[in-house]
Amino acid sequence: MRGSAIASSVLALVVWAAAPAAAQPRAEDDSAALVDSGRRALTAGDLPRAAKALDAALALNPRRVEAYVLRAAVHAAQGQPERGVTLMRRARALAPDNADVATALGSQLMLAGQADEGAPLLEEVVARAPARYEAHALLGHYYATRERWPDAVVALEAYQRTRPAALAGDDDRHRLDLAEAYLRTGRAAVALELYRALVRAHRDWRGARLGEAWAAAAVDCRLARPLLARLADEPAARAEVLLVDGQCALALGDARDALRQARRVLEAAPTSAPALALVGEAEAARGNLAAARSALEQARALEPNRTRYLIRLARVLRLAGQPAAATTELAGVALSPSSPDYRSYWIETGEARWELGTAGGVVAPLTQATQLVPDDAELLTALGGAQLQAGDPAAAVATLERAVAARADAIARPTAERLTTALVAVAEPAIRAGDLATAERALTRADQLAGNPTVWRDLGLVRLALDNPAGAVAALASAGATPDAVTALLRGRALAGVGDLAGARAAFDRAAVAGGRAVEVAVERAGFELDTGEPDAAVAALVALPPRERGPGSAARAALVTARHAAALAALHQGQATRAVALLDEAARDATGDQAIAVRCDAALAAVATGDRARALARLKSIAKLTCPFPSPADTQAVPILTAFVDGLSPRRAATATARLTALARTARGASRALATAALRVVAMTAAEQAYRAGKVAAARQLLTTARASGASLGDDELAYDLAVLDLADGKVAAAKVVFAKVAAKVPEALIGAGVAADREGDGARALELWRQAKRAGARLGVLDDWIAAKERLYGGGPR
């Protein structure tokens, strides 16, 4: 239909030329009258009369510019643009700066097929005078013939805006090229509506009906296939229609039908390059890459200048695992942005180089391509991958999100995977920088798109850092039953955070068998066990490591010192002083710095608790000059107090130790004072017992008085009992009886003392009853059974 469009452009030129000219000086009235006569004849379509009048005008006045313009229009209307060119060159020599002359010359050059000279001239015209509709019309169709579709859209839209009402009847012929320009520039929906209007108005325009089918195919092949089926009945369009229908079948996933349509064309035309190309695409869709390559190579050999076949061949090579060969095929091609293959060329180039890891080198041309087709998901995916490989993940995320938004249906897998990779690449530096909010947003989005072990691991790590263990559990659970060691470690930490200790231990067990992180797993497990109050389990986790992993300076050795120290303190609290000493001695071998001091100090305390006086004194003396990490002031006072205490446990040293502890108690403060007074009471009571046994009742009473004066609560009932025994020995029977009755519930031996008091008061029967109660309560006295037996002989009655 472009011939008709050019005819319409001629009409536009004639209408423009015949329009009344602006007022200008007329030196020759006869010449002016002839020009007016020629214009009227041209408007009326009487070309011979117009030519005669205008030739006469030029004979009278060879410098009359408007006569040249009108006469050239007559030549154009008569199909003689070459004569129009000759005429307008003469006019240009007379008026080189006249816009009408430039317009007319450029138009005549275009009509004469001299577009290389005419098009630039008309482009200059419309740049200075945007209302030159006749220039827009010629340029629009010129651009269309050269497939400069974006330029064609601009020119033809400008013509529609500026043309006079008299030319409205020819609009549809210009719209035919405009619709194709819309289609070729990715505005298929707009093109479809325009084609539909043209088909309604001109049922006999095959170009419009073909265009409608092509546009429908670009919008939705399900709309296009019925149209194509009707067109297939027209022999003139059969091959082309079958090929487009085959492309639609391919787009709808029916590669078998696409292949059938291509073979129908090949039956009539065995060397049809488009049909061979369609065979190649259909075979590629079916996975027959060798057959696809063969067909596309044949198509390319038949039409070596068709870039489209080369691009399809490159795609097949890439799908066959040969991205380098695909890149080589594409490398020698130089396409203008106006080329219909420009988009697909850069998509395939980007994809091939993505697989080679070199897509970063084509960010700039891919960016230019997306500017021309801004909402193309495939093109945006290729650009996003290139930005990612160029080291700009933030830009890749923005581009790939555009690709996601460009698709109305499900996200394409390459888009989702690249966007996920880009989001992880954004998140990991954010994690290192401490920007956890940014990292979590990126990783949450990545998990929505195409979660993978890296995403789940990092998301779990971030949520743990944000004190969201429940969220971390949810993310890490996606890793399945056999995660890598790091993920299993994080899962264990997360489960511990939500209180699932059994689940945490199971996760740590999986981490241990995952391999590659034995030390890290053991240290993490030990820390967990310490946090949950299981120091023995922490020791076991670390001891299970090979000795080489617990070498000097290793993290495992330091952790084992901490675990053994904690296990020793737990054993000490449970009364297992000997085991505590053994654990602390093991810890001391590897401890360094302040930790070594703490271990030695606690080992001395544990030795005290064992009751082994000699070992305890030796250990206390070894730390006498150290400042133990006890709460102040115990850090400096505890060791002297404990040394005196242990020393006083010896009967021969008890009195001396009592004096020393009395002095220490006077200067001690806080916890140290409580320790000193408790030690003083124990030692003083021990010394008092020794003095009593030696018959030194006064000395024993003095020592017990010292013990009571210490103020410690340790052994109050025992102390009261001991003083009551001394009262009984001194003959203060009544006073002793009161105390014995008060403490008998906690000190069974007080029942023995109460029985002695009753016996001294002459109440033997009461004494016997009290001694029997003492025996039943577990009181300890070697002669108790003899006393009971003697009384029973006097008062009768057997054992009760």
What does this structure look like?
- This protein has 800 residues and is mainly α.
- Mean pLDDT is 83; it is low at 22-27.
Map the helices and strands.
Blueprint: H1 2-18, H2 29-44, H3 47-60, H4 65-77, H5 81-94, H6 99-111, H7 115-128, H8 133-145, H9 149-162, H10 171-184, H11 188-201, H12 206-219, H13 221-231, H14 238-251, H15 255-268, H16 273-285, H17 289-302, H18 307-319, H19 323-331, H20 342-356, H21 363-372, H22 377-389, H23 393-406, H24 413-433, H25 436-450, H26 453-465, H27 469-477, H28 485-497, H29 501-514, H30 518-531, H31 535-543, H32 555-573, H33 577-590, H34 593-610, H35 613-622, H36 634-648, H37 654-667, H38 670-693, H39 697-709, H40 716-729, H41 733-743, H42 749-760, H43 764-777, H44 784-795
Helix pairs in contact: 1-2, 1-4, 1-8, 1-10, 2-3, 2-4, 3-4, 4-5, 4-6, 5-6, 6-7, 6-8, 7-8, 8-9, 8-10, 9-10, 10-11, 10-12, 11-12, 12-13, 13-14, 14-15, 14-16, 15-16, 16-17, 16-18, 17-18, 18-19, 18-20, 19-20, 20-21, 20-22, 21-22, 22-23, 22-24, 23-24, 24-25, 24-26, 25-26, 26-27, ...
Average residue pLDDT: 83
Question: Low-confidence stretches at least 5 residues in length (pLDDT < 50)?
Answer: 22-27
Shape: rod-shaped
Instruction: Please tally the β strands and state the result.
Output: 0
Q: Beta fraction of the residues?
A: under 5%
Which class do the helix and strand fractions yield? mainly alpha
Roughly how many Å apart are the termini?
A: 133 Å
Number of helices: 44
- The value of Rg in angstroms is 53 Å
The major sheet is characterized as:
none
> What is the helix content?
over 70%
